[in-house]
Recover the amino acids of this structure.
């Protein structure tokens, strides 16, 4: 990948396709919401693509990708500046910050990044919900979200790793 901070046309096209995929995955999650009927809990499939973008393009471009994803998903599904949007935004930003920092560590694979992302997404969601609702009672819900976040974070990280491994294999055999 070019080291320039500017997005080349090829990168912009690739990221646009990945963004469309992330939005489609979020739509699928909404359709399958009965799988996780608890408030604030979802599979996090779109985060799989965020992890892929983080590894392929680096934190700065991944942050642009995440920003576009958050705004478009907000416009399409939750509405901008609604409590649900703000709670999800808090989770996404904290999660991304930790994932971006963690992706620079060689001891963490995309699976570890997925687990970190899920954990801190839940922490961010609960923190924003506490601020919006003016009650610390919501902290009692955090262990439930964390328990649900372990398998989903593992799964999204595993999917990202699988994709990245196949992509590396493709580039090496080309």
């Amino acid at each position: 990948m070019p080291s320039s901070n500017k997005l080349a046309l090829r990168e912009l096209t690739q990221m646009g396709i990945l963004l469309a995929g992330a939005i489609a995955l979020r739509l699928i999650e909404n359709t399958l919401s009965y799988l996780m009927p608890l408030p604030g809990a979802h599979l996090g499939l779109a985060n799989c693509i965020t992890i892929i973008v983080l590894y392929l393009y680096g934190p700065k471009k991944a942050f642009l990708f995440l920003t576009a994803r958050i705004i478009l998903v907000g416009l399409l599904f939750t509405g901008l500046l609604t409590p649900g949007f703000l709670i999800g935004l808090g989770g996404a930003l904290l999660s991304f910050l930790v994932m971006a920092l963690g992706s620079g560590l060689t001891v963490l694979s995309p699976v570890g990044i997925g687990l970190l992302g899920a954990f801190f997404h839940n922490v961010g969601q609960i923190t924003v919900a506490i601020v919006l609702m003016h009650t610390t009672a919501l902290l009692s819900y955090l262990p439930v979200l964390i328990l649900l976040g372990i398998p989903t974070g593992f799964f999204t990280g595993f999917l990202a790793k699988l994709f990245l491994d196949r992509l590396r294999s493709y580039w090496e055999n080309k």
Notes: The chain has a mean pLDDT of 90.
